[in-house]
Specification:
Largest sheet of chain B: 6 strands, mixed
CATH architecture of the largest domain in chain A: 3-Layer(aba) Sandwich
Order of helices and strands of chain A: HHEHEHEHHEHEHEEEHEHHHHH
CATH class of the largest domain in chain B: Alpha Beta
Distance between the termini of chain B: 47 Å
Protein name (chain A): MoxR family ATPase
Structural class of chain B: alpha/beta
CATH superfamily of the largest domain in chain B: von Willebrand factor, type A domain
Oligomer: heterodimer
Strand order of the largest sheet of chain B: 7-6-5-8-9-10
Number of strands of chain B: 10
Shape of chain A: elongated
Pfam families (chain A): AAA_5
CATH architecture of the largest domain in chain B: 3-Layer(aba) Sandwich
Number of strands of chain A: 9
Largest interface: A-B, 41 and 49 residues
Helix content of chain A: 40-55%
Strand order of the largest sheet of chain A: 2-5-8-1-9
Structural class of chain A: alpha/beta
Radius of gyration of chain B: 29 Å
Number of helices of chain B: 21
Shape of chain B: globular
Helix content of chain B: 40-55%
InterPro entries (chain A): AAA+_ATPase, ATPase_dyneun-rel_AAA, CbbQ/NirQ/NorQ/GpvN, P-loop_NTPase
């Protein structure tokens, strides 16, 4: 098995992620480096919109790997996550054999239709069989049923998949696995044990300003500062959903689109809908920040 | 496997004490309730051998990534990490630089005399000025240094001999009293354009955080003197979901309140999943036979009647007097956050008189507003202000009999401490006899039941009583009744 060199050190991780436009804090960079160095899956938790999925994409961009994504949802099963036999094609094959008239024995047909040709690979198997560097993103793993976690165990610990008809397929090259979760459900101990864990939270003001400026370069430095301060103030309030980085960036884009050069109280009140998505949060912010007096 | 190899390598270095410290650290984590398995232990060692040890932050990140798999355990981990891998030893290498203005030599051995000299009125005034500056700028590094300096200068308790001296965060905090800086800080924040409440809240939070830092630093010093094991038990507070409602501080309550919605969401997800799993009702014989005709009478597929979801009508009666008020509020918030899973919810609060509060819980209402309204309505629940369970139960039966039909369930929240008054046990058992279910949640530890004026077991004989001291227990209970 060849091992890929993902990052050579935490600093290297910081630099290369930054080059792709993802500004990682030291803990994120260290953990991303470790995930590559130890070849362990990385479980990323945190509120929506702090860049969990983006981290996987950034790792893929930084290392020139391809991203294979498995989006989880309730009812996801083996056939959608791992592999499936292309039974229509198998049926055709059997009929074709019969039509040509040469009476193939049962054994021959059986061996024939359970080969690679009739296998439909799904994300997990695809990622394992790829020979080029791969980042496997298992998104929102908390949305799946508990059974799927069992399915993941073999993939995550040994990087292999057992197909009864074909035998065990082991990874040629271990992918860089990122699992993301919103923690709507506690994942099982078995999955957590196999992963490195990283909790992403809202960044501090300095980092957030850097992120906003790098994502929206047209925004003036002064307005970016005002925006980040306002978002920080909003996060201090008890809101149902505090604004995340994604929303700060959206806000910055909104300000550019509306050509607002100064984020004063009126401008905040007018565009608050971009960052706060609950009516009660909206009212609360207007009242606490005294936006309309 | 790489993990085992590196494990052996580090083993050969055990003479440096590194492995011992690592093992001791892991033991402490396990003692504090983190489930650290052997596999994770080996991962941690592998991770440590993969990173440079030059930066403490990196080492901490490596440990955290491999050992802590739940965010709620992170504070516990951080506290223990600070003890086993302290930020610095003594006053640190940087102390000579930062304290150069007023201090000369600062060796830990010469501690006693040095501190008594430095701890003067001038030093105090100077220190407070610098502290106010750092707080206003919210400069984390400066605050950490100041906390260390504060404990060293104002919190030292010189002992009679080496190893007997100690440090007290309490003394240091009394001397410097950062709480008095609040006004100054608020004024500064107001000048930045913050609103009144916001400035006060921010100032309070910063001062609180600094107080924590000072406490942590005193603990670090004591740990240095007496060994981290000595301090670990005192240093740790249970994580927020295991913290008792009755012993929560104000900052904890705020944090708990933030936990309510995520908890409700987790419960709702879990419930929906479980309901889906058991959605198939009893066999629909007619449809099964009819469908079997197409397969020659063999019932290949069975058909089932849809299961009728059962929804409870819940009536919550909660004691809102003094100490148990927080508990009642949390439970109410959680119940109302999960209202979709109930047919109907009605809530009553009482101290010695029953008052209905259902109307405060509008769908999508703001949590803080609801809390304020609830607090304000407490006055309606009291006539004389002494908790009286008997009277509350009688009044509920008299005035709100319509709420308690054969379909409804009653949930009583309270510590069953009724100031030795009449318990109205007969009325309660009559009430309970006419409804579907009844539960009683008691926020006190089971060992305190029946102490003093608690009538826990007497009420418990009528209504099954459950101990519910923290968010975890509360979540479990609410999940079970749904």
């Amino acid at each position: 098995m060849t091992t890929a060199d993902w990052f050579s050190s935490p600093d290297d991780a910081t630099e290369r992620l930054a080059a792709t436009g993802y500004l990682a804090d030291p803990a994120t960079a260290t953990t991303a480096y470790l995930a590559g160095a130890l070849e362990k899956p990385l479980l990323v938790e945190g509120p929506a919109g702090v860049g969990k999925t983006e981290l996987a994409k950034a790792v893929a961009r930084a290392s020139g790997a391809e991203l294979v994504r498995l989006q989880c949802y309730e009812g996801l099963d083996e056939a959608r996550a791992l592999y499936e036999w292309n039974y229509k094609k198998q049926l055709l094959r059997i009929q074709a054999t019969q039509a040509t008239g040469d009476a193939a024995t049962w054994d021959e047909t059986h061996d024939d239709i359970f080969t690679d040709e009739f296998l439909l690979t799904r994300p997990l198997l695809t990622a394992i069989r790829r020979e080029e560097p791969t980042v496997l993103l298992i998104d929102e793993v908390d949305k799946t049923d508990v059974e799927v976690e069992g399915l993941l165990l073999e993939v995550l610990s040994d990087f292999q998949v057992t197909i009864p008809e074909l035998g065990t397929v082991a990874a040629v090259r271990r992918p860089f696995v990122v699992l993301t979760s919103n923690a709507t459900r506690e994942l099982s101990e078995a999955v957590k044990r196999r992963c490195l864990y990283l909790h992403l939270d809202y960044p501090d003001a300095e980092r957030e300003r850097e992120i906003v400026s790098s994502q929206v370069p047209d925004l003036e430095e002064r307005v970016a500062g005002q925006l980040v301060t306002t978002v920080a103030r909003l996060r201090e309030l008890e809101l149902k959903k505090a604004p995340s980085i994604a929303e700060s960036v959206d806000w910055a884009r909104t300000l550019i689109a509306l050509e607002i050069r100064d984020l004063d109280d009126k401008a905040i009140a007018d565009t608050l809908g971009v960052v706060l998505k609950h009516a009660s949060d909206h009212d609360r912010a207007v009242r606490e920040l005294r936006l309309r007096r | 496997m790489t993990g085992y190899q590196t494990g052996r390598q580090t083993g050969s270095q055990s003479s440096s004490g590194l492995l011992d410290r690592h093992i001791a650290f892991l033991e402490a984590l396990r003692a504090a309730g983190l489930s650290v398995s052997l596999a994770e232990d080996l991962d941690a060692v592998a991770a440590l051998s993969a990173v440079q040890w030059g930066s403490r932050q990196t080492v901490q990140a490596a440990y955290a990534a491999t050992l802590v798999k739940k965010q709620s355990q992170r504070p516990t981990f951080d506290a223990l990490f600070d003890l086993w891998f302290p930020r610095m030893v003594g006053s640190g290498a940087g102390a000579a630089g930062t304290g150069a203005a007023e201090a000369t030599g600062d060796g830990p051995d010469a501690a006693g005399q040095e501190f008594s000299v430095r701890d003067g009125a001038d030093a105090l005034r100077d220190f407070r000025e610098r502290l106010a500056e750092a707080l206003a700028a919210d400069d984390q590094q400066a605050l950490a240094d100041l906390a260390a300096e504060m404990v060293a200068t104002f919190g030292a308790m010189p002992g009679r001999g080496p190893g007997l001296s100690s440090w007290s965060a309490y003394t240091a905090l009394q001397r410097v009293s950062p709480g008095e800086l609040v006004d100054q800080l608020v004024a500064g924040l107001l000048a930045e354009g913050r609103t009144d409440e916001e400035a006060e809240r921010t100032a309070g939070r910063r001062i609180g955080a600094f107080t924590h830092r000072v406490e942590d630093d005193a603990r670090r010093r004591i740990a240095e003197e007496k060994g981290p094991e000595h301090v670990a038990n005192v240093a740790l507070r249970p994580s927020i979901d295991r913290l008792d409602f009755l012993s929560a501080r104000r900052s904890d309550l705020e944090e708990m309140r933030r936990e309510i919605y995520p908890l409700a969401r987790r419960l709702a997800t879990r419930l929906t999943k479980e309901h889906h799993a058991q959605r198939r009702g009893p066999l629909d014989f007619r449809r099964t036979v009819r469908a079997s005709v197409s397969t020659g009478g063999v019932p290949l597929t069975t058909h089932h009647k849809p299961k009728r979801p059962h929804r409870t009508e819940l009536v919550v009666l909660c004691d809102v007097s003094g100490s148990v008020a927080n508990f009642a509020q949390f439970t109410l918030l959680l119940v109302f956050a999960l209202r979709d899973h109930f047919q109907k919810v009605r809530a009553f609060t009482f101290i010695d008189h029953v008052h209905e509060v259902t109307h405060h819980f509008k769908p999508g209402a703001d949590v803080v507003d609801v809390m304020t309204d609830l607090a304000a309505s407490t006055s309606h629940a009291a006539l004389w202000g002494r908790t009286n369970y008997g009277r509350a139960i009688t009044k509920l039966a008299e005035n709100h009999a319509d709420a308690l039909g054969p379909k409804s369930s009653l949930l009583v929240l309270g510590d069953a401490r009724s100031n030795y008054s009449d318990l109205a046990l007969d009325t309660l058992s009559e009430l309970v006899g006419g409804i579907r279910h009844a539960w009683w949640l008691n926020p006190e530890h089971r060992r305190h039941w029946d102490n003093g004026d608690s009538a826990a077991s007497r009420y418990g004989a009528v209504v099954p009583m459950v101990e519910c001291r923290n968010l975890t227990q509360l979540g479990e209970f609410v999940h079970d009744i749904l």
